[in-house]
Description:
Blueprint: H1 5-15, H2 29-33, E1 35-37, E2 40-42, H3 46-62, E3 76-79, E4 85-92, E5 98-104, E6 111-117, E7 130-133, E8 139-146, E9 152-158, E10 165-171, E11 184-187, E12 193-200, E13 206-212, E14 221-227, E15 240-243, E16 249-256, E17 262-268, E18 277-283, E19 296-297, E20 305-312, E21 318-324, E22 331-337, E23 350-353, E24 359-366, E25 372-378, E26 387-393, E27 406-409, E28 416-421, E29 427-433, E30 440-446, E31 459-462, E32 468-475, E33 481-487, E34 499-505, E35 517-523, E36 531-537, E37 549-557, H4 560-568, E38 572-574, E39 588-594, E40 597-608, E41 614-620, E42 633-641, E43 647-649, E44 653-655, E45 670-675, E46 678-683, E47 692-701, E48 712-714, E49 720-723, E50 731-739, E51 748-750, E52 755-756, E53 769-770, E54 782-788, E55 792-800, E56 805-814, E57 817-823, E58 836-844, E59 847-855
Helix pairs in contact: 1-3
Amino acid sequence: MKKPFLIVLALFSALFSNAAWSHPAGINRDIICGRQKKGVVEMGKTWRMLLWVLLVLTLVQVFPACSFGLWVENGNPLCTATADLQGSTITSDDAGGAIVAWTDTRSGNYDIYVQRIDVSGVVQWAPDGVALCTATDKQFRPVMTSDGAGGAIVAWEDTRGNDYDIYVQRVNGSGVVQWAPDGVALCTAAGKQFRPVMTSDGAGGAIVAWQDDRGGGSSSHIYVQRVNASGVVQWAPDGVALCTATYEQSYPRITSDGAGGAIVAWHGSGGNLSNHDIYVQRVNAWGGVEWTPDGVALYSVTGDLWSQTITSDDAGGAIVAWSDTRGGSYDIYVQRVNGWGGVEWAPDGVALCTAAGRQEGARIVSDGAGGAIVAWQDARGGGTSSHIYVQRVNGSGVVQWAPDGVALCTAAGELYPEMTSDGAGGAIVAWDDYRSASFDVYVQKVNASGVVQWAPDGVALCTASGNQFGPAITTGAVGEAIVTWLDSRSASNYALNYDIYAQRVERNGYWGYPAASIKAVRDVPGDQGGNVNVAWDASRLDPWPEEVISKYTVWRAITPERMAGLLEQGAHVLTSASEALALTGGEALRVEEVQGETFYWELMSEVKAYYLDGYSKVVSTLFDSTSVCNEHHYFQVIAHGADPSQFWVSAPDSGYSVDNLSPVPPSGLAGGLNYQPAQVVITWQPNKEGDLSHYAVYKGEGEGFVPSESNRIGTPSDTSFVDTSFDPTRSYYKVSAWDIHENESEYALLRPEDITGASGPPAVPAVSLLEQNAPNPFNPMTVIRFAIAEPGLVTLIVYDVAGRPVRTLVDGMREASRYDVTWNGRDDSDRGVASGVYVYVLDAPGYSETKKMVLIR
């Protein structure tokens, strides 16, 4: 997706610049689509229609069809190439999806590949991944971070130079490698550089720390380097030393300092090879080491510290958790260091868990409020099983939840946690799970209050055959996560040839996204338009055995103009789709945020769930499609659980309605031939349809001629037509009625023999006569026929009911004959006269007659 939301915003702004609201959907039919009149489309505010067309095209980009239902049970494959895949790592793509990197042996060497999967479960890049590095020898143990622009930066260990070095590469959101082929070298110093860790620099680049043996001997040190968004190394060649103390400094962990630098934690011997302590150091955005040389010690009492993990305190400092043996077995402790290197909490750390047994393998995330959440593997139950526990500590170092932690999973088996924030003060934890005698992947969520949210002992993301292990997790949308893992389901030997799979867990603890899927939005046949049938496949949680869904609601996208109008009429805006569960009637509107843009939806209907596989509902549209207005209406279906917090919004889909019913053919078709001037006057009775637009008159030779645009001679909106070019013996006429949606009726036929006076000039009449005008009432013209028995001065004058002359139709000498005169409802100054009753008076030699007629505008 190429971020079409700015286009949407601009279109909305232009389309509705005079409206009280500034985001999408209902349209006034006459304004946007115009009306058919006299065969010509009279467009009202044509520029708005053009913008609406662009908006519809943009909605297709914003909401791709079928976009929410492509995750499959047991995960979507990211790479199934014939190879041994190892060491997967994951980061967010900043759009609800994820980017995954791994070590790959398809070439015979260890290389680095990467793949992106979007929020819908659709793999975005080349099948089986994009190669970041295929240099000679080995590239492995990748780590990664988001580049903040939909792509990622990946670092790895690299032996192309005969020892272990650190390289890095960037890939953009389209899967295009950005920097030098096979990566940018961060460190190629002598000795071994390994165990890289990475964090974003907040400016499109990254900071990487690693364990470094360049000094030789038994010592290893901690170094760090920054690379900017363009792939240019920023600090000293081969990195900045954070600790070069004697003896081993190892297993670095890193977090951002929020100011372009980083804070790194590691464990070191401190001169005592029998114990390991935890140290931290800060490096600023310019590569300057900020705190005590060789790091700030977080621990000073006897004991062995391992498995340190670090997160930002969101105030320039960091919170570090670790496993600690001061009590005789491994317990979990935590400490905070501020932005100046000062230890904030109790000396030697705050105990999160000192329960019996071993607690180790700690993982930590920020709680977003200055504190942190820590998860760990816990063997307090004894035996060979280990469980998953979690605890929260606030910014003051006060433990928030149950003593010794909240159990996320106590099922039998060995469990190894990985964790990410849920974006709302809680956390989501994934782990390897051996409860079924092979490794599977499970996940659990705990909220900011320490309440476990999903199924007891976790939600199974994958229980496929073979082993699934080594999960890595990243935050998706708020309350959701995406997990990747190594998978041997397709291998003949479960110890070899692992593939890469991924799965989404949504906010309610279900894999993928169990929304309904709109399969069609179709016109309702045989109606007058204004309706479509929305059909959808049920949520997978609807049929047996799930039976979670209680009802569906159907929504139509609307414009700000309609939004404002509905609010004026008393409609209300729901703050969440969950409120729709309790609707009892009345207009309801919903606001939806999609990647920073706002859209509005109007509730159209509710459908009770009956545990079926599919449903449909007829709902109204705002206008009907025609050849000049074929914009679609967009709809969504929301599946609701009995719990108001459980709802799943479908991807939008679109369709249009069509008026399928034509008007009836015009009735009372008649024609009269005039010779002074020569013309055929055709008249008919008005149609009664409320959506009538105009009539069409066609002329051809022969009763069987086929009406078409080429022989259409007029499109009057009234019930008469005058043809001044005709053949009294060969001209046939057909007249049809059209509605505003371009439906044309069958044809009424007028033959030459049906035309009064068509047989030739009339004989001299025996008596003078004034006939009743036809049609009567009329609009806008009528024909008055009269006969003169002897030549002389003749006048035919139209008067209003007050006796004032309105129009002189005849005033002069006339031969004895029959005459037809047409009055077009205008006065002697050619101004249209008002509706009403008029009289017409014929004065001829020896004859005078008066008759009434009615004009209806």
